[in-house]
Amino acid sequence: MVKSKAWDWNNLNHETRRELWLEPSIESYYLVNRWKTQKKKSFLDLGCGIGRHTIQFAKAGFKTTAVDLSVEALRQTKEWADEENLFINVKYADMLDLPFANNCFDCILCRNVISHTDTQGIMKIIDKIYDMLKADGECFLTLGSKNASTFNDPKNEYIDENTRARMDEGPERGIPHFYADMDIIPELFKNFEIIDLYQTQEFHKDENGNYISFWHYNLLIKKI
Q1: CA 3 distance to own-chain centroid
Q2: Which residues contact 63 (CB under 8 A, 6 or more apart)?
Q3: Distance between CA 23 and CA 51 in Å, rounded?
Q4: Per-residue pLDDT at 178 exceeds 80
Q5: Cβ neighbours for 51, distance < 8 A, ≥ 6 positions apart
Q6: Are 147 and 126 in contact (CB under 8 A)?
Q7: Are strands 163-165 and 157-160 parallel, antiparallel or unpaired?
Q8: Which residues contact 191 (CB under 8 A, 6 or more apart)?
């Protein structure tokens, strides 16, 4: 199992500029409404980055915990929460060794986070998500897709049959990326009910104005 490596939040390039990470993702608005309707209260932002979803869920009234491996990300998240007069529980932790008891969260969000490991790491994290969720607890997560060009990019380092380390310049340099397909997803989540599963291709402009694409699987899962 590879060692986890934090994003370098001081090395954002055009593709990953800071303002992109201040606006909550589109699906998060649905999740806030869904989980409030379900009367869920305790929320974990697993891999919080600089706090976009932490702040969003705290403002919506959730008892919010934010976790990241980057000290700088946690500093910015805490600073933002203080500016908004929001109380959040901030934890520095590796997603491969999370310091939480079983059955302690109603809902978990980990968008573009748990793919930053190898196949063994993914299995360990998914098991921990199951343990941390309360009965009927839900988690929304994303996984990299093998449709992504970076999976077969020869400049990226081979880790295992599903994992490559990104070697391009930017905050993800040297960070492993696990890529999934529909052969492995059912096995990974066999202990959950898969409520929703879909694949997306996102497009962003690079510094030259050209569109580049990113492929992800998106899953909403429930502890059973």
Answers
A1: 17
A2: 41, 42, 43
A3: 9
A4: yes
A5: 45, 66, 73, 76, 77, 80, 81
A6: no
A7: antiparallel
A8: 130, 223, 224
Compute the distance between CA of residue 67 and CA of residue 37 in angstroms, rounded to an integer: 25
Mean pLDDT of all residues in the chain?
92
Rg of the chain over all Cα atoms, to the nearest angstrom: 17
The whole-model pTM stands at: 0.93
The single residue listed with the structure tokens 């343990």 is 131
